[in-house]
Structures are given as structure tokens and as C-alpha cells.
Specification:
about 500 residues, mainly alpha, 3-stranded antiparallel beta sheet, two-stranded parallel ribbon, 20 helices, 9 strands, about 55% helix, elongated
Length: about 500
């Protein structure tokens, strides 16, 4: 079993993905245990001090003016978690919860939050046992941390609430802990607060989204190249010297990928001579690298923000280098929220240009000699007519999801928390958008494969031929109308698991 060690330094994006998606076990490194033990001494000193200290001997948020006596402080932490575990709606996906748990554990392991090592060990134990607390869709405003989602996790550590096992069974947390040899934790001063005051939910979803987009950007270049080939477009516009005239980094990468996918195409060669009457391709073909490249550059910016946030210690109050405990505003999710929204805009546009290419295949006036709707017997058969409707419906939804969440703010906690980021909401809609992009690109590949095959006896490029072969392993080739939904879903799965990109790369080498 793969294992991730969590120490004083930050976890990497790859480690987040391994824990979230691959079920990697988690262990605490010795340096983390030592750092937590040392920092706990500062909290215990403040706990014994008659001067109130926020989150240690006071209430929370707008109730921070009340000093809490020693005998009520365990109840204070327990009550905090119970009251803040106020989520509602559908359950959040297992991978998101596991990413969120690992990121909160990573902050605990720095020794800057003042929790005891046993609290951090409880998180590592849950992750390694494959136990996932039940967390609900709604409840985070993306400020003061992802409060409700993180509280549902902390509730399970207390032995309350519900968890799902590795095989999906729903159990009371106390029973699941017992079955796996884990003990509920009774939180001491500040510990409950330290478990819920972070950007871990929105950051975890950003890290997972970036991993998905790395794969989907390569697929978008493949799909665009297939459409250029099937629609008798030209690859000359992707030449490196033309891209160099506009030195946008992502554009050059996308154009180089498309050139490699189309290399050696007999279809492209068949109409590339001086007698070809076609002067310019439509924008959706000719400008594919410009759009895909801009998306790449957006992803690069988002990854920079994610890497900075992975290296951050987000808690309030936090233990400083000097050993003091200070209030701060680092829990505000604005940096993460903005790039989550930015990515949703880029995803919507990448899907939009993909849908436009698909539509060209289906219009006999623009497909350059292909049957209307790529139908086997037009009029009797409808071909891929309604596949484009499905794309259009998804793209329309993606445009709605591109509306930024981070421009909204609803004050809370009796106006103490009077400006919030809505970063969790931005993360949730980006996950939906990435699913939509996956489906739109899959339909483009499915349609382009059919269009290319209808150019026979002309043959496609080796790269596109490999992708078509991967599709044909799951879906039959051109012919009379068939039940189309399962065929679309089969290609969606090939797109989601990276099989289409892997098929091309097996022939032409790794794409950038």
C-alpha cells in the first residue's frame, strides 16, 4: 500500500491526489510529532493565564467576548464542533473529503495550531483506515475556513456523526472507530477551533481539478486535431514560427501538440497542394491553439496559487515563530476562490469551441462533403444530430457555472464575519464544470472519429488512428442509427480515465 508521510513541511499536490483518489495510507513523521508537542506547551500556558485568549479561554466569532472557565472548556470545544456541523444537502464526494482531511492534517503537523499529537494521529488513522466522515454540500462560506465541512470531519474524530467505510457502507462514527481499533478524541483548549479554521475544502478541490485539467487539456488538443483532420482543415496555421509571433506560452504548447497529433496524415496531405481552393478554416479550427493555450495559462496561474496555499499555515489564532499566539485573517479564501472561478470561465470556453467544431461535422453545408449529421442514410437515420444537442445543453450549463461565486458575500456571525469569499461554492461548481467539459470533449472525439472514418479510403494520421482504435474497442464504427447514450458514456469513461490520451501518446510520445 502506498503511504504518505506528513511532516512539518507541506504536502505536495501529487500526495493530495494519491490520498484522495488512490486511498494511500497516511503516517505522521517524527518532526511533526515533536513540533506539535512543543507548540502545545504555549497553548497550555495561555490556558492557565487569567487573561482571555481567543479560542482558548473565550467563545467564538461574535461570542468571543465571554471568558470561559476551566471546567467548561472541554464542553466549549465539543459544543463548537457540534454546532458548526450544520451542513445540508447531498453528501460530498469521498475524494474531496479525503483531500480536505489530509490538508487539515498537514497544517496540524506544522506545530502552529497548538493541537496535541494525538489529534493529528486521529486524522491519520481515519485516512489510513479508509473511513470517510459524511460531509454535506452546503454550509461553507469560504471564510473563517470551510467551517461546516471541516466540522463534520471533526465530529467523526469525536466519535459522533456518521462515516462511510472504504466499501461505502454507512456506519455511526463511534462503531466504525471501534471496529478499526481507533479511539474517539476529547478535544482540549483550542483543538476544536484548530480543526475547522482552514481553506482545506476549497483547496483540496482546486488540487483535484488541476489534476483533471492536466489530462483534459491534452485531450482537448487531440480532439481539436481530429476535427481539423476530419473537416479537411489545415495544420499549417499551427506552425511554430506563426505561434512565435504571439509569445503566449500555452498557445505554443497547444499548437505543438496538435501538429504532432496530425503528423503524417494522408487526409491532411490530400488537400494541402496549391490547387486546394480552401483559403482559411473557421475560427473554431484555426484558433484552437489560441483558446486551449489561454486555458493552459490560466491553469498555470491557478497552480501557482494552489502551490502557495499548500505551503500555507491557515489557522486562527496561530502560533508564531516567536511563540506568541496571534489572531489573523489567513483563513479568508479569496486567493483560492478567485482562481476556482477563473478556471470555471476557462473550462466553459474550452467546451464552447469544442461544441462548435462538432456542429460543423453535422452541417452538410460546412462539413466539406460528409453526409448530413454523419448519418448512414440521411432522412432515415439521424446520425449524431442529438449528440450535438447534448453538447449544447452542457455548454449552456457551463456558461451558467462560469458566473463567479467569489463576487458574492453574505455577512454572518452577527456581522463579525462581514465579508466572505464563497470559495467553497466556487469549488463545487468547478467540479461540475470539469465533468461537463469531459463529456463535451468525449462527444467531439466520438463525432470526429466517425467523420474521419467516413473519409475512407483516405486514412488518418497515426496519432488520430490510435485514438479512433481506442474508441472502437468500446463503440462500433459508422452504420445505421444505434442507441447512442451508452456509446457516449463509454467514450466519456475513456476520456475521464485518460485512455484516449494514452492511446495517442503510445504512438506519438508524451504530449505537453
Amino acid at each position: 500500500m502506498v503511504q504518505v508521510a506528513v511532516g512539518v513541511g507541506p504536502v505536495s499536490a501529487d500526495e493530495v491526489v494519491r490520498v484522495a483518489r488512490d486511498g494511500a495510507e497516511v503516517m505522521l513523521a517524527d518532526d511533526a510529532v515533536a513540533a506539535m508537542a512543543a507548540s502545545r506547551a504555549h497553548i497550555e500556558a495561555l490556558a492557565g493565564n487569567p487573561t482571555p485568549a481567543y479560542g482558548i479561554s473565550t467563545g467564538f466569532g461574535a461570542l468571543a467576548t465571554r471568558h470561559i472557565p476551566h471546567e467548561l472548556r472541554t464542553k466549549l470545544q465539543r459544543s463548537l464542533i457540534r454546532s458548526h456541523a450544520a451542513g445540508s444537502g447531498p453528501e460530498v464526494e469521498r475524494e474531496v473529503i479525503r483531500a480536505m482531511m489530509l490538508l487539515r492534517l498537514s497544517t496540524l503537523a506544522t506545530g502552529r495550531t497548538g493541537v496535541r499529537p494525538q489529534v493529528a494521529q486521529a486524522y491519520a488513522g481515519l485516512l489510513s483506515a479508509g473511513l470517510t466522515p459524511v460531509v454535506y454540500e452546503y454550509g461553507s462560506l469560504g471564510c473563517s475556513g470551510d467551517l461546516a465541512p471541516l466540522s463534520h470531519v471533526a465530529l467523526a474524530v469525536m466519535g459522533e456523526g456518521q462515516v462511510r467505510t472504504a466499501d461505502g457502507a454507512l456506519l455511526p462514527a463511534v462503531d466504525a472507530l471501534r471496529e478499526h481499533g481507533l479511539e474517539p478524541v476529547t478535544f482540549a483548549e483550542k483543538e476544536g477551533l484548530a480543526l475547522i479554521n482552514g481553506t482545506d475544502g476549497m483547496l483540496g478541490q482546486l488540487v483535484l481539478a488541476l489534476a483533471d485539467l492536466d489530462r483534459l487539456l491534452a485531450l482537448a488538443d487531440i480532439a481539436a486535431a481530429m476535427s481539423v483532420e476530419g473537416l479537411l482543415g489545415t495544420d499549417r496555421v499551427f506552425a511554430a514560427h506563426l505561434q512565435a509571433l504571439r509569445p503566449q506560452l500555452g498557445q505554443a504548447v497547444a499548437a505543438a501538440n496538435m501538429t504532432r497529433v496530425l503528423a503524417g496524415s494522408p487526409i491532411v496531405a490530400s488537400h494541402s497542394g496549391p490547387d486546394c481552393p480552401l483559403v482559411q478554416d473557421a475560427y473554431s479550427l484555426r484558433c484552437a491553439p489560441q483558446v486551449a493555450g489561454a486555458v493552459r495559462d490560466t491553469v498555470t496561474h491557478a497552480r501557482t496559487v494552489a502551490d502557495r496555499e499548500l505551503a500555507s499555515i491557515v489557522d486562527n489564532p496561530v502560533i508564531t515563530d516567536a511563540g506568541t499566539v496571534e489572531s489573523n485573517g489567513n483563513f479568508h479564501g479569496a486567493p483560492v476562490a478567485y482562481v476556482l472561478d477563473f478556471l470555471a470561465i476557462a473550462v466553459a470556453d474550452l467546451a464552447s469551441i469544442s461544441e462548435r467544431r462538432t456542429d460543423r461535422f453535422l452541417d452538410a453545408a460546412r462539413s466539406r462533403g460528409l453526409n448530413p449529421f454523419l448519418a448512414d442514410d440521411p432522412g432515415v437515420d439521424s446520425g449524431h444530430m442529438i449528440a450535438q444537442y447534448t453538447q449544447a445543453a452542457i455548454v449552456s450549463e457551463l456558461k451558467r457555472l462560469a458566473q463567479p461565486a467569489s463576487v458574492d458575500s453574505i455577512p454572518s456571525s452577527a456581522m463579525q464575519e462581514d465579508h466572505v469569499s464563497m470559495g467553497w461554492s466556487a469549488a463545487r461548481k468547478l467540479r461540475k464544470a470539469i465533468d461537463g467539459l469531459t463529456r463535451v470533449l468525449a462527444i467531439e472525439v466520438l463525432t470526429a472519429a466517425r467523420g474521419i472514418e467516413m473519409r475512407a479510403p483516405l486514412r488518418p494520421a497515426p496519432g488520430t488512428a490510435a485514438v479512433i482504435a481506442a474508441v472502437r474497442d468500446r463503440v462500433p464504427g459508422p452504420g445505421p442509427d444505434r442507441y447512442l447514450a451508452p456509446e457516449i458514456e463509454a467514450v466519456v469513461e475513456l476520456a475521464r480515465d485518460g485512455a484516449l490520451v494514452a492511446a495517442a501518446e503510445a504512438v506519438i510520445g508524451r504530449l505537453s
